[in-house]
Specification:
The protein has 139 residues and is mostly helical. The protein contains 5 helices and 2 strands. The chain has one domain. A two-stranded antiparallel ribbon has the order 1-2. The radius of gyration is 15 Å and the shape is globular. The N and C termini lie far apart (35 Å).
């Protein structure tokens, strides 16, 4: 894949309340695709979750911010907790859920972010909780 900084790729996504498109740089799509593959989560579910949490941010900015938070969280965890150098190819720890931790941090870091209603389970969080990993609280 050619990762030129000016190459923008548009993808359509169906959210619970509307259809929209997201235009991102090729290297951001590559990063998001890697996250989705590692976490076995669909792009539409990620977008729906971020859309609920993003406050006044645009969806494309939310996706970029989430990818940055995800990889930073993954890097910090493997460096601080395991000392492992190859964070993407190391086995996942049973008591660490990078995806959930990253979503929680996204809610904290996104400008004017809103925490989703605690009383209502979102489709993505329902799916994450069915994964065979234990959920860890946000640091």
């Amino acid at each position: 894949m050619n990762l030129q900084a000016d190459t923008l790729i548009k993808r359509n996504v169906k959210l619970p309340d509307r259809r929209t498109s997201v235009q991102l740089e090729a290297y951001v799509w590559q990063s998001i695709d890697a996250i989705l593959s590692l976490e076995t989560i669909k792009f539409s579910l990620l977008c729906a979750e971020l859309d609920q949490r993003k406050g006044e941010l645009k969806l494309a900015s939310s996706i970029r911010l989430f990818a940055l938070i995800y990889y930073r969280t993954l890097s910090n965890h493997f460096h601080d907790e395991t000392g492992e150098g190859n964070m993407l190819h190391s086995p996942k720890l049973d008591n660490f859920n990078c995806f959930l931790t990253s979503l929680q941090q996204f809610s904290q870091y996104a400008q004017h972010a809103k925490a989703p209603s605690l009383g209502r389970q979102t489709p993505l969080l329902s799916q994450i909780q069915r994964l065979p990993r234990l959920l860890s609280p946000a640091p």
